[in-house]
C-alpha cells in the first residue's frame, strides 16, 4: 500500500489531474472507493479530488464503495462531505446500491446518516425494491421499519412485491404482504406480483398471493396475465393451480395473446393438453403467430401439432406472419409437420403471409425436401405473391441451386415477372449466385427482361460488383444501354460499387457515357458525387460531357462541390483534384441549376472552404444574394467563407421539393 500511495503522490505532484474522467471507474476516487483503498481515498481527497464527481456505472465514489461493501471508505466519504442522496449511476443512489448487494452494515450506516429511504431512481426504482430483488430479508425489514414506502412505484419490477415475487423470495413476499403491500398493484415488466411469480416459477408464492386475494385474471405486463406467463415458461404446476383457481383460459393479451398459443410455441405439451381439456379455444386468432397451430408448426412442435389437429384445429386458418400453419412449417423446414398438415387437408396453394404461399416459403428457406413434397402434392409452381413474386425467384435469391433445378425441371416460368427483383435472373444476379445465373441463362432466361428495383439483371449484378456475372451477362447479350431501374443504366449502376475495372469494361462494350436517367442523372455526375476521381478522369477522357445537365445536382461540377468532409473526405477521396479535372476539361464554373443553384453555392452551403477557395481562384462568380438557393432551413445562412464579402452572408428561402 505504501508503494501505491507513493506512486499516486508522485503522479499528482507531477501534474496528474486528480479529477480526470474516463475508464471503467470514471475517476481515480471512484476506483479507490470501489476497491476499499481507504488510504488512497484520503490522499486523493487531500489532493483535491471532487468527492461528488459523477461518472461510470456507479455514478460516484460513495455509491461505488456502498456497492462494494467498503464500510470504512463509506464512513470516510461521509465524514468528508459526500452527498448521501446524490442521484446517478445504475443503482440510483448509495442506499439502493448497498441494498441491492445485501450490505446490511452499510445500509444501517447510510440510514443513520440521513439517507432518503424512499429516494427514486436507478434500475430498481428505490432501495426497498433493490433489497427485495436482491433477496436480503434483514435489509427489507430494516427499510420497512424505517419508513420505506412498501407500495412505491418505479424501477424495472414496478414495486418491491413484484421484485420479490419474480425472484422467488418467499419470506420477503410474506413480510411485504403482512406490512400492507398492495397485491394487485400494477406496473413493471410483469405487470403485477402474480404474473411475476408465475413467470419466475415460484409455486409457493403464487399460492400465497392467490390466497391473499391476487386478481388471477389481471391484465397487464409483458405476458398479459399470469396464466400466459406460466404457460410460456412451462410452469405446469402453476398453470394447474391458476386454472383451478379460476383463471380465464382464453384471456387475451401479451405477445402470444393467449395461454394456448404461448404453450404451443414453447413446446409445453402437457400444458397444451391441460388447456385444451379445460376449454381453451383451439382456433383463437391473434398474437404473434396468429393461432396455436401456426405457433407450434413454426417451432417444429410435432406432437403438439398432432394434438391440436386431433382436437379440431383449423388447418387452413389464416393469420399471423406466415399466413397459415403450412407456410410456417415450410419456411422452417419442418418436414414431418408439412407432411402431416398436407395429409390432414392443408391448402397447399393458400395465398397469404410473409412469403405468399408455402412453396415460396420453403424455396426461400432452402428446404429442398419440403419443396419436393409440395410440388408432388400439387403446389402451383408459378403462383404469384410474397416479396419474391414466386418460388423460383425466392430460391434464386437465396442461392439454393438444388431447389432452382427441380423448379425449372417442373416447368417453372423462368421469366415470370413480379416481386422485389422483377424476375429470378435479376434476383440471382443481385445476390451474386453465379451458378444459378448460368443455369437460368442456359434454360432460356430473358437477359434483358425489365422490372424490379434494379431494372434488369445486368444492373442488379453491377450493384453488387459481381464481376463474373457481369461478364457472363454481357457475353450473353445483355443490353448495356438499357434504361430503367434506380440507377438508370448499367454504367451508372456500376458506380454504386465504384468498380473502375467494370466501368472500363462497359465503356469498351459500348456503354453510352452520356446516357441520361437514374438517381444521379448520368454516370459522370454519379462518379463526381461519389468522389471517384480516377473514374471521373476516365469518363472525361472517353468523351463524357462535363456540362450535361440534369437531376439532383444539375452538373457533375456541382455534385463534386457538395462533398462533405464527414461523408467523403475521410475516405481518401480527392475532391479538389476531381474538380480540377472537370474545370480543366471545360466544366462551366458558373453553371446554374440543381439543388444549390451553382457549384460555388453548393460548396458554401456545405461549408467546404477548400473547394470554395478553389472555385474563387478559378474565376467563379461570387454568391449572388438575389439568386434563389434551395436550402433546408430558411433561417440558416450560408457559412461565411474567408474570402466572401460580408454582404453575401445571406438567408435563403426554402424551395426543397427540387
Which percent range describes the beta-strand content?
Answer: under 5%
Please identify which CATH superfamily of one domain we are dealing with: Ankyrin repeat-containing domain
Output the structural class: mainly alpha
- The global form is flat
Radius of gyration: 35 Å
User: Which parts are unreliable, with pLDDT below 50 for 5 consecutive residues or more?
Assistant: 565-572, 626-640, 645-658
Q: Largest sheet, if any?
A: none
Number of strands: 0
**CATH level 3 topology of one domain:** Serine Threonine Protein Phosphatase 5, Tetratricopeptide repeat
CATH top level of one domain?
Answer: Mainly Alpha
Query: What's the helical proportion of residues?
Result: 40-55%
| Average pLDDT number | 90
Termini distance? 70 Å
Query: How many helical stretches?
Result: 37
CATH architecture classification name of one domain: Alpha Horseshoe
InterPro entries: Ankyrin_rpt, Ankyrin_rpt-contain_sf
Pfam families: Ank, Ank_2
Keywords: ANK repeat, Repeat, Signal
What order do the helices and strands come in, and which of them pair?
Elements: H1 2-13, H2 28-34, H3 38-46, H4 61-68, H5 71-79, H6 94-100, H7 104-112, H8 127-134, H9 137-145, H10 160-167, H11 170-178, H12 193-200, H13 203-211, H14 226-232, H15 236-244, H16 259-266, H17 269-277, H18 292-299, H19 302-310, H20 325-331, H21 335-343, H22 358-365, H23 368-376, H24 391-398, H25 401-409, H26 424-430, H27 434-442, H28 457-463, H29 467-475, H30 490-494, H31 500-508, H32 523-530, H33 533-541, H34 556-561, H35 575-584, H36 599-606, H37 609-617
Amino acid at each position: 500500500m505504501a508503494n501505491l500511495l507513493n506512486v499516486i503522490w508522485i503522479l499528482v505532484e507531477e501534474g496528474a489531474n486528480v479529477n480526470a474522467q474516463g475508464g471503467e471507474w470514471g475517476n481515480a476516487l471512484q476506483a479507490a472507493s470501489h476497491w476499499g483503498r481507504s488510504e488512497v481515498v484520503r490522499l486523493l481527497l487531500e489532493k483535491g479530488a471532487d468527492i461528488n464527481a459523477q461518472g461510470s456505472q456507479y455514478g460516484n465514489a460513495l455509491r461505488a464503495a456502498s456497492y462494494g461493501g467498503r464500510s470504512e471508505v463509506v464512513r470516510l466519504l461521509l465524514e468528508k462531505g459526500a452527498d448521501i442522496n446524490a442521484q446517478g449511476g445504475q443503482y440510483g443512489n448509495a442506499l439502493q446500491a448497498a441494498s441491492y448487494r445485501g450490505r446490511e452494515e452499510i445500509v444501517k450506516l447510510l440510514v443513520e446518516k440521513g439517507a432518503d429511504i424512499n429516494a427514486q431512481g436507478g434500475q430498481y426504482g428505490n432501495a426497498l425494491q433493490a433489497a427485495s430483488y436482491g433477496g436480503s430479508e434483514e435489509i427489507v425489514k430494516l427499510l420497512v421499519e424505517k419508513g420505506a414506502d412498501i407500495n412505491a412505484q418505479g424501477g424495472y419490477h414496478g414495486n418491491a412485491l413484484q421484485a420479490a415475487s419474480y425472484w422467488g423470495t418467499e419470506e420477503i413476499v410474506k413480510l411485504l404482504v403482512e406490512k400492507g403491500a398492495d397485491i394487485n398493484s400494477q406496473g413493471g415488466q410483469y405487470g403485477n406480483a402474480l404474473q411475476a411469480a408465475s413467470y419466475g416459477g415460484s409455486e409457493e408464492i403464487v399460492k400465497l398471493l392467490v390466497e391473499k386475494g391476487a386478481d388471477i385474471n389481471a391484465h397487464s405486463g409483458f405476458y398479459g396475465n399470469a396464466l400466459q406467463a406460466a404457460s410460456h415458461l412451462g410452469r405446469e404446476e402453476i398453470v394447474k393451480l391458476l386454472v383451478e383457481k379460476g383463471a380465464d383460459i382464453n384471456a387475451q393479451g401479451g405477445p402470444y395473446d393467449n395461454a394456448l398459443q404461448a404453450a404451443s410455441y414453447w413446446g409445453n405439451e402437457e400444458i397444451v393438453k391441460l388447456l385444451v381439456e379445460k376449454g381453451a379455444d383451439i382456433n383463437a386468432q391473434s398474437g404473434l403467430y396468429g393461432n396455436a397451430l401456426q405457433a407450434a408448426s413454426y417451432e417444429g412442435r410435432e406432437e403438439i401439432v398432432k394434438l391440436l389437429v386431433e382436437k379440431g384445429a383449423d388447418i387452413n386458418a389464416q393469420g399471423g406472419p406466415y399466413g397459415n400453419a403450412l407456410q410456417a412449417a415450410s419456411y422452417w423446414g419442418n418436414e414431418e409437420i408439412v407432411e402431416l398438415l398436407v395429409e390432414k387437408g392443408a391448402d397447399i396453394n393458400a395465398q397469404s403471409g410473409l412469403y405468399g404461399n408455402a412453396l415460396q416459403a420453403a424455396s426461400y428457406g432452402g428446404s429442398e425436401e419440403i419443396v419436393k413434397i409440395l410440388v408432388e402434392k400439387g403446389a402451383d409452381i408459378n403462383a404469384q405473391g410474397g416479396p419474391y413474386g414466386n418460388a423460383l425467384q425466392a430460391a434464386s435469391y437465396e442461392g439454393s441451386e438444388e431447389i432452382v433445378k427441380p423448379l425449372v425441371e417442373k416447368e417453372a416460368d423462368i421469366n415470370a415477372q413480379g416481386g422485389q427483383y422483377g424476375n429470378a435472373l435479376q434476383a440471382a444476379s443481385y445476390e451474386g449466385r453465379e451458378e444459378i445465373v448460368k443455369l437460368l441463362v442456359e434454360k432460356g432466361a430473358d437477359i434483358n427482361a425489365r422490372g424490379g428495383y434494379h431494372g434488369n439483371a445486368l444492373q442488379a449484378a453491377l450493384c453488387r460488383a459481381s464481376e463474373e456475372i457481369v461478364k457472363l451477362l454481357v457475353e450473353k447479350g445483355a443490353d448495356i444501354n438499357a434504361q430503367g431501374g434506380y440507377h438508370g443504366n448499367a454504367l451508372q449502376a456500376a458506380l454504386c460499387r465504384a468498380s473502375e475495372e467494370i466501368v472500363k469494361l462497359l465503356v469498351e462494350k459500348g456503354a453510352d457515357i452520356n446516357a441520361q436517367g437514374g438517381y444521379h442523372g448520368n454516370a459522370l455526375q454519379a462518379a463526381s458525387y461519389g468522389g471517384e476521381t480516377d473514374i471521373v478522369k476516365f469518363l472525361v477522357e472517353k468523351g463524357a460531357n462535363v456540362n450535361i445537365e440534369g437531376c439532383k445536382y444539375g452538373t457533375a461540377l456541382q455534385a463534386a462541390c457538395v462533398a462533405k468532409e464527414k461523408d467523403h473526405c475521410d475516405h481518401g477521396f480527392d475532391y479538389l483534384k476531381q474538380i480540377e479535372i472537370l474545370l480543366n476539361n471545360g466544366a462551366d464554373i458558373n453553371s446554374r441549376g440543381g439543388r444549390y443553384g451553382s457549384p460555388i453555392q453548393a460548396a458554401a452551403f456545405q461549408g467546404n472552404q477548400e473547394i470554395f477557395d478553389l472555385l474563387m481562384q478559378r474565376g467563379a462568380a461570387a454568391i449572388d444574394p438575389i439568386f434563389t438557393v434551395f436550402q433546408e432551413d430558411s433561417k440558416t445562412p450560408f457559412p461565411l467563407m474567408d474570402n466572401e464579402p460580408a454582404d453575401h452572408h445571406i438567408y435563403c428561402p426554402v424551395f426543397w421539393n427540387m
